[in-house]
Amino acid sequence: MQKLNPTAQNPYNTDAAFDWLYPERIQLLSKRHWTPMSVARKAAHFLSQGERKRVLDIGSGVGKFCLVGAMYYPAATFYGVEQRQELYNYALDARDKLKVKNVHFIHGNFTQLDLDNYDNFYFYNSFFENLDKGDRIDHEIEYSTSLYVYYSKYLSRALENRPSGTRLVTFHSLGDEVPNTYQLVDASDDFLYKSYIKR
Ligand SMILES: C[S@@+](CC[C@H](N)C(=O)[O-])C[C@H]1O[C@@H](n2cnc3c(N)ncnc32)[C@H](O)[C@@H]1O
Fold it and tell me: Under CATH, to which class is 9-198 assigned?
């Protein structure tokens, strides 16, 4: 097992402390839209095991999962792809403040990426905003049920093409993007957190 950085020396080891890296508007979105610290650490631990350590967060928001993973698992490299320019910019600012090197952010739609360049994947129900009218990050982009279906199928197909041993963590997912070749290996009691390994 990799050695963790000692938390006592990490001033960003709680959600409240971490959220102070961002402006108030972004802090207010945290509870609903950004991965909690404990979940990010658990997921990053699972996804950074073994030889293959390029971890992609599909819909990385302001970078919280990637940045927490990079702080605690320096031997892995974390990548985040985010469609919203503003959130991508906040992720870069937070990376500069934290001075972590093993994290890279990409601005764009995940469908523009070659997912073959990554080993393991994290997914915090990024496409759900297309179904949920209630609590959206903003009104800057187009939302639709057909986009939810398109993105979920696209991701499912891409995950299906990954080699045996590929690791996946989902959080709050409806499961539509998880191919049935991925075996569930762990889940939280409330089933919001699930980890899988491809057979
Ligand atoms: C629930 S947030 C999770 C943020 C981050 N993964 C975390 O855990 O802190 C989902 C993010 O996915 C992004 N997203 C949704 N669809 C996307 C797509 N097709 N390509 C890239 N980003 C997308 C949204 O803009 C949003 O920032």
Answer: alpha beta
